[in-house]
């Protein structure tokens, strides 16, 4: 097991969990939005979407994903839209990657993202719900493991992931 990749919708806990998992496994932690910002000249994801549009963002996201999976012993928290490009799906499926889908109800996601600003695709809740419905089957299809996060603490989820790995 070289890399653990967490996938799931915005607000499913990929970043919080990823940090804890990385600590537990003594792996490095990479958060894809942060990696995207490092590769670009922008200060926020909102700024990229506003000034350059989503397609531009997706290309940098692809580059940053490729850079991240070139490393070993890493936990990678992907962006919720990583599954949008087929070429990212191919990268996710590469040997050495364990892909874990953090499955969370939309109602729970709404609560968690209440007041969070830097999510351009969560500004319109109806559109976000449509995205959620369209993406869920893809997350399920790609994942090696599916973890239900609803009603669980971060520690419980980390222990569950440790058990399955
Ligand atoms: C996106 C998810 C975000 C970020 C960008 C687009 C998406 O990452 O990459 O706002 O399309 O779902 P998180 O899943 O970490 O919030």
Descriptive report:
- The chain has helices spanning 14-25, 32-39, 45-52, 54-69, 86-92, 106-112, 125-142, 154-164; strands at residues 3-7, 28-31, 74-77, 97-103, 145-148.
- The protein starts with a strand and ends with a helix.
- Strands 2-3-1-4-5 form a 5-stranded parallel beta sheet, with helices on both faces.
- The chain has 165 residues and is α/β, with parallel strands linked by helices.
- Helix 3 (45-52) packs across helix 4.
- The chain is built from 8 helices and 5 strands.
- The radius of gyration is 15 Å and the shape is globular.
- The mean pLDDT is 96.
- The protein binds shikimate-3-phosphate.
- Shikimate-3-phosphate binds at residues 10, 14, 33, 45, 79-81, 119-121.
List the helices and strands and how they pair.
Layout: E1 3-7, H1 14-25, E2 28-31, H2 32-39, H3 45-52, H4 54-69, E3 74-77, H5 86-92, E4 97-103, H6 106-112, H7 125-142, E5 145-148, H8 154-164
Parallel strand pairs: 1-3, 1-4, 2-3, 4-5
Helix pairs in contact: 1-8, 2-4, 3-4, 4-5
The chain binds shikimate-3-phosphate.
Shikimate-3-phosphate binds at residues 10, 14, 33, 45, 79-81, 119-121.
Key terms:
165 residues; alpha/beta; five-stranded parallel sheet; globular; binds shikimate-3-phosphate
Strand order of the largest sheet: 2-3-1-4-5
Query: Helix content range of the residues, please?
Result: 40-55%
Radius of gyration: 15 Å
Bound molecules: shikimate-3-phosphate
